[in-house]
Please model this.
Amino acid sequence: MQLRKKRTNVADVIDKTDGNKIYLGNDLPRSLSVSLLYFALGVIFVVVVWQIIASTYNAYWSSILTFPTPVEAFGKLGEYIGGTKFLRYTMWEHLSGSLLRWMVGFTVAVAIGLTAGILMSTGERMYRFGMVPVSILQIIPGLAWLPVTILLFGYGDGAAIFIIAITVISPVAISVSTGLRRVPKVYKHIAETSYRSRLDTLLEIRLPFSLPDIVSGLRIGMANSWRMLIAAEMVVGVARGLGFAIQMSTDNLDYLSAFTCIIIICVIGLMLDKLLFANLERHIRNRMGADEEAER
Amino acid sequence: MSVIEMNGVYKSYLNRKRDTATIVLRNIDLRIEENEFVCIVGPSGCGKTTILNLMAGFERPTKGSVTYRGEEITAPSFKRGVVFQEYSLLPWMDVRGNIDFPLDRKLSADERGKIVDKYIDLVGLSEHKDQRPNHLSGGMKQRVAIARTLALRPDVLLMDEPFSALDEQTRKHLDQEIRDIWTKDRKTVVFVTHNINEALLLGTRIVMLSSSPGQILGEWRLGTGPRDMSSKYISDLRDEIISKLEPCACASAGKKVITIE
Ligand SMILES: Nc1ncnc2c1ncn2[C@@H]1O[C@H](COP(=O)(O)OP(=O)(O)OP(=O)(O)O)[C@@H](O)[C@H]1O
Ligand SMILES: [Mg+2]
Model:
């Protein structure tokens, strides 16, 4: 497998070129192929450690239970992806149940966090005041909200969504207000000497300027909530979803199925983080100009 | 009636601990009349930007009054356009977007587009209208900033050392452009600079500030016509201004500070 074509070396041709542009060809950037390589090595390492633990366990530890090996788990995963049901649903249905809950919780939380962050950016007093509830929210671990959410929503979807949402509000509110407070005075002055309203200014200057901060906050929120989602599903009594599936399979001593769910959780979480948010972050940083400093 | 009038204006800033106030401007009386091009000169830190901020309405005087056509200035307005000392373009918008942002949305996108193009032409950047600020040189950025402010057709133009970050060559070129634009449509301009040659080239009046705290040291009127920068009249005037400036610049080492109980 060759990830990298040979690129034209600028120094070799620079004195032989007319005009002032040199076309180098558009191959896979070096940094991408290198990071893919590291990613593959890292995954292999994890799988090897897993295999060692499984073989050791199965050989010396317990004679009744078996620790699923990577080969067995991935085999079973293939079966489930193919459509075999377990715990009354297919893997896709468990996954979509979880994702739906996550999206509802995440969206509600982002709306609340965004509003709170904007309010907190309206003045020093609002910021100091707002940071108190935000810090309180932030310091309470998600599952500690169990009594609150059960009281409010009873067992089921509502309770899970609440726990997901509550872990996202703080990072979003903090990042939004931080970003908005960093907007240089001169941009504020430009808006004030223009024909545009405060809302226009918020939407077209202040929020776009804050986007890098906001996306970092969303990324933290997404990681928090993805972890909380699984935990919440294990305790608040839902009948479908990855967390529920792990819980039930474990109770049924069907460790193999539980392991396939863990693999799915890991893959989807990595995809959301590394593909969606990391790219979004990079895109926005480029867009803001690698020249934030130059713009002061 | 003057366009802008400052009467007995004092400005002070509290320090961080809020137990000391530093006086930045002391008893400024200044009238800006219709169609004047007033250059404010003075050493760095003497309060030139502060004066402009008061005129724009970004800040309020600690004591005294600042009025615009007879009315107390309480907030900024598009009638008093500002070109800022630092680079102020929005990095994620191209040149057109930057000039378009402040414009009135009562105008259709088409009308705005025409205005934007007209002012891009005026500052000679037609070839760069789709570029982002980080692809422009410092001089180009300031031209865009000027176009952005002019496109609002402000009644008064407040310019805060728009070219001080540029090299001598570019600065001279842009000074000439400003001069041409002003000759064409005679706006009222307040132009801050610490470059006396720039003031001599552009101003119909030069106002000099002393530093710490800023006070008006002297004023010179120059008439509205083009001027020969190498003439004896101009060079004598330059010498006179510089001689006024020097002793005070040295004498002002200690800042005037008052302590609040
Ligand atoms: N927001 C502020 N808080 C405290 N002090 C301030 C503030 N703004 C300005 N100053 C002080 O007021 C004085 C005058 O500042 P100003 O920016 O008006 O100077 P300037 O004449 O424009 O200088 P320069 O030529 O360097 O731009 C300076 O000593 C500065 O430290
Ligand atoms: Mg200044």
Notes: Residues B 48-49, 85, 160-161 surround magnesium ion (ligand 2) (CB under 6 Å). The helical segments of chain B are 48-56, 95-100, 109-122, 138-150, 168-185, 196-202, 232-251. Chain B touches chain A through 31 residues (CB under 8 Å). Confidence is low (pLDDT under 50) at residues 249-261 of chain B.
